[in-house]
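The records we work with from here on pair a chain with its fold. These numbers are not coordinates but entries in a learned vocabulary of local backbone shapes. To see the layout at work, look at the sequence and tokens printed below:
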Amino acid sequence: MFWILIFTFAKTLSFAQDPYPFEEEKGQEEMLLDQQPTQIVGGMVNALNGAFYDQHEDLVVTAPEPIVIVRSYSSRQRGQGALKRSWHLNHQGWIDLKIGHKPAEGMMQREYGAKFRGPSGEELLFFGDHHKQSARSILTLHKKWIRKCFCNTSGNEISGRTNLKNTRFIYQPHHKNYKIVTGSGAELIFHPVHGKNRELMVLKEHHLPNRNCFLYLYTPESYLARIISANAEGKMHAAVHVLYPKDFEKFPEMHLQGSDGRKVSYYFTHISPYGYFLKDVVFPDETRFSYGYTSKGFPLLNKKVWPDGRQLTICYHENGKVHEILDQGVRLYTLTYEESHTTVTDAQGLITKYHFDENRRLTLVEKYDQKNICFGRERLFWHREGNLLSHSKETGEGIVYFAKTRAYDDRGNV
């Protein structure tokens, strides 16, 4: 750590001595160097766990607070939502509440656990206690969860507003609802679903820091029926209607239609015994994306076809981790997994090694040329609760040309 501090101090002095016309250029250079390395290979594969990701913006309904429809896929996600198995539709969130009891100070104290899946697909685990006499209970993120997989750079911004550890789970008995409050001040309000499952909550209101909000309506069967963009007084700006066929088994499809008349359609295929999976997406201009899945074990996305016919093929190891990515039959990436690192080989034969610590955080990225000689390294050092403490870059010979250390307040602001 001592050499990092010396280097940072020396670099700061050299910047101060530069003539004024070059200060802006130097600042831009340092900003580029300070960009955090990512473990997502090619924007598609997580080098840590071998999961394949896909994401697409399907529909935008303009308004003072526009409704942006984004769907995403993860090969590690096996759950079911509006887009059936494995796919996630933003503007859809839920809470799975678990309540137990334990003795405390001569009385029975309620013990809460809550799993939250947010509109962006994030999953958080909350834990805490609640006395019957209390007007409300506040749950915070489980410390074990923070230490094992939390990272304060996941939102591409380091601040208390985006720091997930500032997210709170609040139970308000007098309002008969549950509320998630984020570090930015946004509030997500959940209500129990219809039926016997009183521990499953669905997102009903999403109040933004600018006081605009999104409201969500559901069918009697608790399927998402309508997304509304409104101001603080509840005046509607725009809406998206979710349309289902009367007989889904006969017509496995779903349509999203904006208040501007534009529509995107989703078509599904049934894969026994796992259920329905997204097969085709048709946009307002009639362009189409198509998807295919593996036939052995749980179906994993192994084919994506663009409207122009271009095809991406995903090959998996038996354990479900991505082995190869091919574009039109040309190999883009090959991944090999070791106990503490993953080796990625690209189409040019260049190798990148991603190293992780026992808490599953990226600590070292090594880049090799075609002669298998290392020409660059990036190192990251983390606090046990997921705050990035230092980031440095060096040549293959170990010469450091960039280093930065950070200290934080209690909310995670630098």
